[in-house]
Prior knowledge:
The chain is mainly α. The chain contains eight helices and no strands. The mean pLDDT is 87.
Amino acid sequence: MRYYLNYSLPVIQQAIWLWLILALVALPLTWWGSRHLATRALVRRLGRTSIVLFYATGVVAYTLLPLPDRDTFVCPAGWGNTYPRFFLGWSLQFALREHGSLLEALFSTYILQMLLNILLFIPFGIFAYLFWKAHFRTVLLAAFGVSLVIELTQLTGLWGYYGCAIRTFDAEDLFNNTLGAVLGWTFVAAWQCRGYLLETLKRLFAR
């Protein structure tokens, strides 16, 4: 319990600072660019921006924070525990190696990590559809691009700020994050079109 507390506190502190910095930059710019709107529309846009900033902070906190102190951080020999994984399926492979049976492997931390990465990007797809009416291909490419930037940031040690990778570059994260965004977009799109879908199904079964 003490380990998780000691780990969580720096993450929360850095995430709060990050959110404040983003909010101090983005909210005034949003207000300035939307000041011609009616009050209700302006408040709605500011609220939407705050939600997106909160989500973006959460993504950064989950994938990059806490950042180690550069002055005391020591790079491990070789890759240490951050060697890149460029192949899919390693999580299930590791889970089976440790737990033996498939059922036990499915409830392991490796599979949980995969599910969390999928869940992390589901709001990405939801916001993209609701806020910007983004098309499927746009969401697919944007989610992959954002995830790739995150993985490269981990691999390059914050683009050279640290002398080595601070986390593991993982091809599965690229896939799972993109999948999560696609699932979020598909869910909202299907919900928005539920009337049309139901009518189509009725016509098919009525024949």
